[in-house]
Each structure stands twice: as structure tokens, then as C-alpha cells.
Q: What sequence folds into this?
């Protein structure tokens, strides 16, 4: 393969293989760090049980995260999460789950009034750019 993509935004150990491996859990903090001057980010995980792990990961990545949850399929949780992050003075919100798509991102941004990135979208665009410019080697 020309490229391997881990389809989860969590923390994963490095894999040893012949192709480059993209880790969304490393890409998202790099993008957020390029945007945020204060390090104050809002992180949205898909379930409440992941809040603690996400807080630890984003703190270890050098951020001052405000972490909440909202299922990508149960939109009733979106308003509560957006309200929390709107009042938390975050610079950027990261939808830290591959289930949160562009439509969800736009609705979330409208509700919280902050810039929002969806890990799914950021990684898809990076994969597209890399795939177009990576020669196939035998």
C-alpha cells in the first residue's frame, strides 16, 4: 500500500511497516496547535466514557482542553456540548471522532459560535493531498 490511515482519533503506538502511517490522533493536535495561540481547545468525544482519556491525551499534547461528549448519531447531545464549549472561552473546537462529519461540524459551529474542525475531514483532505502526490513504487 502507498499509505495507511488509522481510522480513529485516539492515541495509538507507532506501527512498523513499509508504507507511511497517518495517525489522526497526532494530526489533530498539530492542526489545533497551528490555530490556537492559548492552547485552550474544546474537545468533543463521542461518548462520556472517553472524556477522561481525551483530557489526558490533549493535556499531554500541550493543550488546556475543555472536554465534553456528543454522539455523532444522537444529535440531542450536540446542543449541550456546544453550549458548554461556547461558555468555556475556547479558541477552537475539535470533533475528535471519525463519526463527526462536515454537516455535524457546521451545525456544531453554528450552536457554539467557535471555529470547529472535524478530524474526519482534516484527515480525508490530507490523505487526498498525499495520495495525489505519492508515486506508486514497485
A:
Amino acid at each position: 500500500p502507498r499509505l495507511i490511515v488509522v481510522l480513529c482519533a485516539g492515541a495509538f503506538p507507532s506501527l512498523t511497516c513499509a508504507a507511511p502511517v497517518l495517525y489522526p490522533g497526532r494530526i489533530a493536535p498539530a492542526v489545533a496547535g497551528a490555530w490556537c495561540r492559548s492552547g485552550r481547545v474544546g474537545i468533543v468525544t463521542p461518548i462520556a466514557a472517553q472524556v477522561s482519556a481525551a483530557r489526558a491525551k490533549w493535556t499531554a499534547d500541550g493543550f488546556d482542553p475543555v472536554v465534553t461528549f456528543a454522539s455523532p448519531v444522537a444529535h440531542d447531545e450536540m446542543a449541550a456540548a456546544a453550549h458548554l464549549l461556547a461558555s468555556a472561552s475556547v479558541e477552537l473546537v475539535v470533533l475528535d471522532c471519525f463519526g463527526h462529519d462536515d454537516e455535524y461540524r457546521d451545525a456544531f459551529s453554528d450552536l457554539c459560535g467557535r471555529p470547529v474542525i472535524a478530524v474526519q475531514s482534516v484527515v480525508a483532505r490530507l490523505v487526498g493531498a498525499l495520495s495525489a502526490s505519492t508515486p506508486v513504487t514497485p
